[in-house]
Amino acid sequence: MIEGERGVLDLFRIVNHLVLRPGSGGELALTVVTRSADDPASAAALGFARSVRSECERWRVATVDIGPGDPAAVRPAAPGDYALRAGRWYREVLEPVDDTAGARPVLREGGTYVVVGGTGDVGLDIAEQLVRRHGARVVLVGRSAPDEDRAARIKALDPSGTRVEVHRADAARPGELRAVLDRVGDVHGVLHSVTVPSDRSLAALDEESFLRGMAAKSRTTEALAEALGDRRPDFLALFSSVQSFLGNPGQAAYAAGCTAQDAIGRALAARLPYPVRVVNWGAWSGSALTERHRDRLAAAGIHPLPPEAGFEALSRVLGRQEVQVAVVSGTDGFLGRIGVPAAGAGADARRQAGAEAEAAPSAGTAATAGAGVPGAPRRRTRCSPSSARWPVSGPVSWHRTTCSAGSASTRSRTRG
Ligand SMILES: NC(=O)c1ccc[n+]([C@@H]2O[C@H](COP(=O)([O-])OP(=O)(O)OC[C@H]3O[C@@H](n4cnc5c(N)ncnc54)[C@H](OP(=O)(O)O)[C@@H]3O)[C@@H](O)[C@H]2O)c1
C-alpha cells in the first residue's frame, strides 16, 4: 500500500531487494495498492510498477487503485493497472478523438516565453519555433551554460542577441527560478522541459539515482509552480512523456517521475487560475534521448515526431481544453500498448465506459463527466495515433474489467 513519498521509497526498496536476491529471475506476484492515482506519490508508484513489469518479465506486477476502499479486500491481480470501486474493476484507456475541432490561438506574436530546461534538445527546438514563427522573446533556463554546439545554434537563431536569453538556475529551487522570472518581467507562457538522464536497469538503480531521476521531473514541476506564485501567464505547459503509459524497462526512475509529474500537473490545472497542460510526448526526432533508444523505439513501433510537427501539436494543445494530452506517433501495436483502443473501437469504448460511469455508484469525491472511474477526477489525455492522423486525441477514460477468484482479467480492452 503506497502512502505518501515514503511509500514510493519503500516500494523501490522492496523491488530493489527482490531484484538483487538470488533467483530474482523467477516467478513472483507483486500487487501495488494506491489510494488515488491523482496523488503524486501514488502516481509515481504506478509509473515505477509499469517499468518493473516490463523489465521483470516473469513477475506478475499489478497496480490497484482503491480510492476509499478497504486495502484488505485487494487480492493479487492479473498483471495490469486497475482501479477498484465498489467491487467493480476499471482500466485506463487513452481514447483518441477527432481533432478537427479548432483550437484557439494562444501563442502571442512577440510574446515572452520561459522554457525551463530550454537549453536541452526539445527546449531548443521549441525555442527555435517560437522565435521563427512568433517572433517571440525566449528565455532559456538551465543549470549549466549551453555547450559549444548549442551556443552556436542559439547564435544562429538570434544573431542580434535580442530574442534569446540564457539564464542559469536550478529548477528544483523555487528561489532561483523566482529570481530569473523577476529579471525577465512580464511572462506570457512557461514551459517545463526538464529531465536528467536516469536510464538504468533495476539491478543497477540505487536509491539515490532513483530519487534523483524521479525528482528531476516531479520536484522541479512543483518548484516551478511555486516560483510562479501570483503571476498569471497565458499557460504553463509541462513536458512529460509517453513513458507514463509505457514504463519501459531500464527507465523506472523516469517513468515514476513522469507519472508523478502528470499528477502534479493535473492538480495544478485544477488549482491555478490559468491553463496548465501536461503533454506526454512520444519520441522527439533528433534528440539525444531518442537517439539513445533508437533501436528500441523502432522495435516498439514508435515513430519519432519532427520538431515542427511537435510544435504544431503543442500550439493546438494549448488552445484546447484538455489538460493532459499524449502526442505520439506509432503503429497500432504500440498504440494498443499505451492503452489506445483499436481504430473504430473508440465510440464503443466511450459508450461502454460512460454507461459504467452511470451504472456505478459514486465513491464520494468529485464525480466525473463522461467516462471515468466513479468518484475519480476526470482525466483527459489525448494522443495522436499515427503520423498520418495526428493529432487525433481523446480523454483518458477508465475501463471496466472483470475480476474473478482473486484475479482481475480483461475481457477485452475496448469492451471491458
Ligand atoms: N527527447 C525526447 O524524445 C522526449 C520524449 C518524451 C518526452 N520528453 C520530455 O521533453 C523534455 C525535454 O527532454 P530533452 O530530450 O530535451 O532532454 P535534455 O536534452 O536532457 O534536456 C533537459 C534539460 O533539462 C535541464 N535540467 C535538468 N535538470 C535541471 C534543473 N534541476 N534545473 C534546470 N534545468 C535542468 C538540462 O540542463 P542542465 O543539466 O544544464 O540543467 C537540460 O538542458 C523532458 O521533460 C522529457 O521528459 C522528451
Question: Which outline best applies?
Answer: globular
Low-pLDDT regions: 346-372, 374-395, 402-416
Helix/strand-derived category reads: alpha/beta
The Cα radius of gyration reads: 21 Å
Largest sheet, if any?
7 strands, parallel
The number of helical runs is 13
Helical content stands at 25-40%
The H/E string reads HEHEEEEHEHEHEHEHHEHHHEHHEE
The span between the termini is 25 Å
Number of strands: 13
* Mean pLDDT value: 83
Q: Give the ligands present.
A: NADP nicotinamide-adenine-dinucleotide phosphate
Numbering strands along the chain, what is their spatial order in the largest sheet? Answer: 7-6-5-8-9-10-11
Task: Report strand %.
Answer: 15-25%
Report on the structure:
The chain has helices spanning 4-20, 40-55, 121-134, 148-157, 174-184, 207-228, 243-246, 252-271, 288-292, 294-300, 307-318, 332-337, 346-359; strands at 28-34, 59-65, 80-85, 88-94, 112-116, 137-142, 164-168, 189-192, 235-241, 276-281, 324-327, 396-404, 407-409. The longest helix is centred in the middle third of the chain and has 22 residues, at 207-228. The relative contact order is 0.15. 38% of the residues lie in helices and 18% in strands. The strands form two sheets. The protein has a seven-stranded parallel beta sheet with strand order 7-6-5-8-9-10-11, sandwiched between helices. It has a domain at 4-94 and 341-374 and 398-409. The protein contains 13 helices and 13 strands. The protein has 416 residues and is α/β, with parallel strands linked by helices. Residues 116-117, 119-123, 141-144, 170-172, 193-196, 216, 220, 239, 241, 281, 283-284, 287-290 line the site of NADP nicotinamide-adenine-dinucleotide phosphate. NADP nicotinamide-adenine-dinucleotide phosphate binds at residues 116-117, 119-123, 141-144, 170-172, 193-196, 216, 220, 239, 241, 281, 283-284, 287-290.
